[in-house]
Amino acid sequence: MIPNQISPPQRILMGPGPSDIHPSVLAALAAPTVGHLDPYFLKVMDEVQSMLRAVFQTTNQMTMAISGTGSAGMEACVVNLIEPGDRMIVGVNGVFGGRMADVAERVGAEVTKIERPFGEVFTPEEVAAAVAKVRPKVVGIVHAETSTGALQPLEEIAKIVHDAGALLIVDCVTSLAGLPVEIDRLGIDAAYSGSQKCLGCPPGLAPVTFGPKALEVMDQRKKKVSSWYLDIGLLRNYWGNNRAYHHTAPINMNYALHQALRLVLQEGLEARYVRHRLHHTALKTGLEAMGIRYSVAAETSLPMLNSVLIPEGADDAAVRSQLLNEFGIEIGGGLGPMKGKTWRIGLMGEAAKMSNVLLFLAALEQCLNRQGIMPTPGAAIAAANAVYCS
Ligand SMILES: *Cc1c(COP(=O)(O)O)cnc(C)c1O
Q1: Can you tell me the mean pLDDT for 291-308?
Q2: Using CA atoms, how far apart are residues 389 and 348, in angstroms rounded to an integer?
Q3: Using an 8 Å Cβ cutoff, are 330 and 369 in contact?
Q4: Cα(303)–Cα(163) distance, rounded to whole angstroms?
Q5: Cβ neighbours around 360 below 10 Å, total
Q6: What value, to the nearest 5°, has the Cα angle with vertex 190 and ends 186 and 191?
Q7: Which of 37, 45, 56, 210 has the highest CB neighbour number within 10 Å of its CB?
Q8: Centre of ligand 1 from the C-alpha of residue 85, in Å
Q9: Best mutation site among 67, 69, 92 for ligand 1, i.e. most ligand atoms within 8 A of its Cβ?
């Protein structure tokens, strides 16, 4: 028996990613596939690179899309900058910092974790103290911790790391195209992202960028990069001027990213940041009117990922499946120690819009009612609307 042709449901993706995708981005996936060395595709690659530079706010030549998801971008940054025995500090205040530490250990780094409870962020002082003690080659930190909803300020940390002569790797999987990611202004040496969060593209590509100091460190390596697939030295020959075959780039995914980046730049970075912030404010005001509280301090709350405490008496799984089955809305549950304690409501890329916020608040009110929790009817929508009308 041959299975039926796929016919996926139309969801509203308000979880931690993937996020909603503009029809023109999906349409790009269905465009004719050309060869990976076809002059047409080489032009697409050039344009993807130049649009990525604009979104990362960098002039780094070595800016490209790794074939793989955000985690492949993470591995690419770590594996190219670390040689066995190198010291690396990783900030672990959520699942993704933990993943970066794991990746670094596998590559043979001598890893020092600095830790913070889930939901908190690092102070410049504690990073400075660790850097002074460890004298690392590389420091890795997560800009937007999608597992907790916390935003890590980077400016002072970047200065501390550079003053100590170390390199800074930043995870901007969730922040890129939703919050300013200022690679050149902060001198971030290496950064990676993912196509499926605020860039509004399906999962499958990991934009990365490497600055001059990172390239210098790679050129001075004593040992070959332990991953052939993610070796930036080899990838530079494909994404750089030589155009030498390395692997077959996922052609149609690059079309999709090209269109997604066009939409980002057409909207304008500043306007896009403002939009994410606006819908976050409306959602937050609505949720609070319903008696729901955030699990992160207001000053460090991410606009694109709203992590809230599940109200007392509500059944986590029942609410999420009612949201999905009756309203087509996907939100995320808590990860790690937050499992069963938080909901993660994403407002990423295309999903950050008024109709999603208002529908979600109305839907959640119904779901809570079913659980015997009775918020004042309509209060959340009225509060969110007040934000939109002000
Ligand atoms: C989603 C995410 C990742 C991992 O990306 P995948 O595309 O799932 O491999 C890494 N870091 C952060 C902060 C993320 O949000």
Answers
A1: 97
A2: 22
A3: no
A4: 31
A5: 24
A6: 85
A7: 210
A8: 26
A9: 69
Q: What single-letter DSSP state applies at residue 350?
A: G
Find out whether the beta carbon of 142 lies less than 6 Å from any atom of ligand 1.
yes
Ligand 1 atom closest to 175 (CA): 13
Ligand 1 pocket residue status of 205, Cβ below 6 Å: no
CA of 305 relative to ligand 1 center, distance in Å: 13
Q: Which residue lies with its CA nearest to atom 5 of ligand 1? A: 70
Among candidate residues 227, 383, 202, 370, the one with its CA nearest the CA of residue 290:
383
Ligand 1 midpoint to CA 71 (Å): 6
In terms of Cα–Cα distance, which of 69, 90, 93, 198 is closest to 148? 93
Whether the CB of 71 sits within 6 Å of ligand 1: yes
Contacts of 160 (CB under 8 A, 6+ apart): 124, 127, 128, 131
pLDDT of residue 186: 98
Distance CA 347, CA 305 (A): 6
Q: What is the pLDDT of residue 33?
A: 98
pTM of the predicted model as reported, rounded to 2 decimal places: 0.98
Angle, alpha carbons 129-132-134 (nearest 5°): 105
Question: Residue 241 — very low, low, confident or very high, per pLDDT cuts 50/70/90?
Answer: confident
Question: Could you count the other beta carbons within 10 Å of the beta carbon of residue 248?
Answer: 10
Q: Are 169 and 141 in contact (CB under 8 A)?
A: yes
Examine the pLDDT at 373 and tell me if it is beyond 90.
yes
**Do 96 and 147 touch, CB atoms closer than 8 A?**
yes
Average pLDDT taken over every residue of the chain: 97
As a whole number of angstroms, the distance between CA 177 and CA 268 comes to 10
Query: Cα dihedral sign for 276, 337, 290, 332?
Result: positive
Where do we find the tokens 């209060």?
Answer: 379
Q: Is 367 left (phi over 0), alpha (psi -120 to 50) or beta?
A: alpha
